[in-house]
Amino acid sequence: MNIFQKTVSSELAKRGLEAAQEAGIGPQEFQRLTGISNIEANTLGGRISGDKFISMLNVVERFSNPCNLIAPPANDHWAEPFTTIIAVLSNAPNLLTAFEKCIAYRALVGQVDGMVFKQAGSDFEFEFLLDGSERTAISAFCSLNGVVQLTQRYAETNGKSISLPILELTGNKPLGWKYFKYFSEYEVRFGQACNRLLLTVPWAQQPDAQHNAFLYKLFCKKADGEINQLNQSSSFALRVETFLIELLQTQPNEDFGNKALASSCARFALSRSALHRRLQKENTHFQNIVVCVRLAQAKRLLVENTRSLSEIGDLLGFSSPSVFSRFFADHTGVSPSHYRYGHG
After folding, report:
1. DSSP H or E stretch at residue 117
2. CA 162, CA 165: separation in Å to the nearest integer?
3. Using CA atoms, how far apart are residues 5 and 47, in angstroms rounded to an integer?
4. DSSP state, 183?
5. What CA–CA distance (Å, rounded) separates 226 from 232?
6. Does this model's pTM top 0.70?
7. pLDDT tens profile 238-274
8. Cα separations (Å) of 328 from 19, 243, 281, 282, 321?
């Protein structure tokens, strides 16, 4: 699944918008920079496409005082899907199970970025896998810090202790690093090959004193249902997008938008209204997929640098180079030639 097929909870976009407003960026400018509208960010239970989310992170992570999108503001209540995940992690039978569920239910918060862990006795290694380009290590830090906070919660409630965590992050220190208040809790190393957290927890499989079997089972069932629903909806969008990529590569046409819809309806044996309803169930629209497919192909062809802008516009079904350039600039904020120069 590529970045255009992944989604994140609109709650993260809402927090990003709030951080932007605190930095003096209004909703209209926020939408211009990220593609995320005020309505999208404030849709309860909604999902934001992965490419828009990456654009948002590349804005908010570079503020002089960046926000932690994983942790809510101090005066805010936890919102879904965080409420369900926290309930699962707080009531798990032991810390190891909490680690496993933390990974298993990450997609409810967002399918962008990934996290894996491996265990060797008492030693745990969590690696955070960044999606998208031009990223700082702040997202990795915030999520890996969440693992440490989870570990500390289990340590405190069970009278245990943990050794000093080692945090390895790629790149240089981000601009707003000084505003994060966790330095004393870590040994932090920048300029590393990957983003990872090293923990030693000899008591990870010991029973948790606050384990609540009823609540744990209840919220796991809720989370499993939401994951299944997300997977089912994503699978249809993935099939539509895969089909459109093939159609665009084999049958470029300046009327691609209309041709794509008719061809998709025929491919999936659905009426236009039925196809739109299927996509709306995962909070997306057919035209959004068309835009994502064209953008993904445009970026790929620009980076390959083997065709002129005119040829790329023709391959993507645009009526003229100027129409292609306008489309690309409207959705990325830069012209095709500037994008090619920056990725040459």
Report:
1. strand 114-120
2. 8
3. 11
4. G
5. 10
6. no
7. 788 888 888 887 776 666 767 889 999 998 899 999 9
8. 27, 22, 28, 25, 11
